[in-house]
Amino acid sequence: MLSILRSLVQEVNSARDLQEALDIIVSRVQKAMGTEVCSVYLLDPATNRYILMATEGLYRKAVGQVSLAYSEGLVGLVGSREEPINLEDAPSHPRYRYFPETGEERFRSFLGVPIIHHRRVLGVLVVQQRESSRCFDEGEEAFLVTVSAQLAGVIAHSEATGAISGLSLTGEEAHDVSFNGVPGAPGVAIGSGVVVYPSADLDVVPEKPTDDIDQELALFEASVKAVRGDIERVAKRLASQLRPEEQALFDVYLRMLGDDAMPGEVANKIREGIWAQGALKQVVQQYIRHFEMMDDHYLQERAVDIRDLGRRLLSHLQEGEQKHLNYPERTVLVSEELTPAMLGEVPKGQLVGLVSVKGSSNSHVAILARAMGVPTVMGLVDIPVNQLDGKELVVDGFEGQIFASPSADLRSYYQAICDEEDELIRGLEVLKDKPCETTDHHRVSLLVNTGLMTDVVRSLSHGAEGIGLYRTEVPFMIKDRFPSEQEQREYYREQLEAFAPSPVTMRTLDIGGDKALTYFPIQEENPFLGWRGIRVTLDHPEIFLVQVRAMLKASEGLNNLQIMLPMISNISEVEESLHLIYRVYHEVREEGYDIHMPKVGVMVEIPAAVYQIRELADRVDFLSVGSNDLTQYLLAVDRNNPRVAQLYHSYHPAVLQALVRIAQDAHSVGKPVGICGELAGDPGGALLLMAMGYDSLSMNAASLPKVKSVIRSVSREWAIQLLEDVLLLDSPHVIKSCVDLALRNAGFGRYLRPGKSTAMAVSEAAVS
């Protein structure tokens, strides 16, 4: 059964569209299980009805015609219960619903399993049998459940591909197709999708028509000629080193490139109006599918040769392709994995949004996007990238959501948000030089998180009082080697000079987890629980010592440097780090540099540190909570993983209780405590943190004006009462709603970004 399942998944994965995928499923499952009927019913999001989409055994004319209400019939029962139903005599069941156009009155045994993807019921997979004496056994039921689970993602992807193309399951026009990912950079953007794909990757080549068939034919013929020449040259060069049977492999390649072989089929596809790269993709994938399905091992291996040839041909077709991309005035850049270089290719002023299948909110591109103020969504694992080229897209960087082909209502809804954001920021500029102080005179320092000089420029224009977190890994990430001491010194001096005499807190190198250096790869089973942060630099003191030396020398004459240690989990790490810092301090002083010993603090971002605050505070000058990592470690949720991202919630009661304890314990021993993380930049979160007693809040520059406006408009007494109220609640969603309601009642409803439910309500209203 495992080999059958593997073969089925491979074949379905290479299907051209949803209908072909479903036809393959019903055909192969019917054959594998030896049943008379196999059918797939999909739930149409537009009508909330199950539609018979493919069948092997029922009348084919019923496909697309038979539909059931959400809870109607046995199919509806399987979907609503979200579990298999196995019946020996289906017609006798009270929920049985008979459709004469299917011809299913002949079949009595029934086994239906739900198709579920990310908690969403996509449809129901059904097998039926004529004999009433046959009940599908446990093994068959388990096999069908396995098939359903394995194929749910493929069906979801294919369904989304069709929807993005503008068609619903019923063939009607589709709008407002949404995909959920991870927020990368806040804001809303509306623009045209431009897909940038990795070179020579057939899987991500977009499907596009061509207006110039002759040009596409010429391009393809040139690529075939070039690949043939490459192979002949390699064969000739290696002729003296290979045996005849090995030399024959090159002949196989050359025969595949003959006009009556694969190139002929690609040319025919191009003549049908498909651009050369798309035609090549279709033919190569069809060849691969056929070879992989064969029983003969030798022929199965030929699929590898076909794939290799396809990549070679595609590589020649793509030469110069990326350089000549047409970037519209409002470009939303889309890719499997965005790189900083891709951002640099877009003409200045035309990049309005970013969408990436891979990556996280802490990736280099996300950091760049926040610095540039470009709304970004990352981690869109189920999105059919190649279908977004040229489509109008709405990028919601607040919620980590995108909409393809938005309706007029949804577009105007998000355009209003864009306009409100611009107007709000302009209105808050008057607060730039005013202190962040409550109406009852409680003072809070508002700092910024930075990594690039562009962050600094925006931060100063928004009235930041210093840097609460300078990510020193950024200079390391934009190099192809470790930066030298002098290079680091120049980076650090820029940041220190820009904010002098205000404090600049520099976090020592924090790599590992989802922050990788190409020249220092860390391969681990579970990187977030592995070698990262201070653990790396203490194991490599040569890196730590050079970095601290560069920081200290950069601070000469300014003396506004503070050093912060990341990922501290025990006291010995602090003591060892302090020993190295003091050692470097004395060495730099002996070299003649007139510097002051900087304040040293630790980041509280591991649960173990929460319970050692007093001991840590005895050894350092300040503490700073890394709320993003602390939240994900407390909740055991990787916030960059879209599959579990909905479980990550900064307002979780456990997170708030931990934050209260940290502030109380730090102040009990007289040490200041700040926080840097997404919660600090959220107006409601900032109020709660201020009420808890946090001395400083560090955030992205864009969040600073809103947070200052809210804090200046309330009393600390009011905020403390709000905190006491929410600490009695046991649901993060209820807590968030309670805080939002308090903000609205206080006149700050305009600061609250509409959530997904609001956007979807607008979308559904437009559809209906």
Task: Describe this entry's structure for a reader.
Its EC number is 2.7.3.9. Its cofactor is Mg(2+). It is found in: Cytoplasm. Keywords: Cytoplasm, Kinase, Magnesium, Metal-binding, Phosphotransferase system, Pyruvate, Sugar transport, Transferase, Transport. The strands form three sheets. An eight-stranded mixed β-sheet has the order 7-14-13-9-10-11-12-8. It has 768 residues and is of the alpha/beta class. It folds into four domains: 1-165, Beta-Lactamase (2-Layer Sandwich); 177-196 and 328-406, 3-Layer(bba) Sandwich (Glucose Oxidase, domain 1), CATH 3.50.30; 213-323, PtsI, HPr-binding domain (Enzyme I, Chain A, domain 2), CATH 1.10.274; 432-763, TIM Barrel. The protein is built from 27 helices and 22 strands.
TL;DR?
GO terms for molecular function: kinase activity; metal ion binding; phosphoenolpyruvate-protein phosphotransferase activity. Its main location: cytoplasm. It contains 27 helices and 22 strands.
Give a count of the beta strands, DSSP E runs of length 2 or more: 22
CATH architecture of the largest domain: Alpha-Beta Barrel
Structural class: alpha/beta
CATH class of the largest domain: Alpha Beta
Number of domains: 4
> For the CA atoms, what is the radius of gyration?
30 Å
Low-confidence runs (pLDDT<50, min 5 residues)?
none
Q: Describe the largest sheet.
A: 8 strands, mixed
Q: CATH homologous superfamily of the largest domain - what is it?
A: Phosphoenolpyruvate-binding domains
How many helical stretches?
A: 27
Quick check: average pLDDT? Answer: 86
Family: Belongs to the PEP-utilizing enzyme family.
Subcellular location: Cytoplasm
EC number: 2.7.3.9
Catalytic activity: L-histidyl-[protein] + phosphoenolpyruvate = N(pros)-phospho-L-histidyl-[protein] + pyruvate
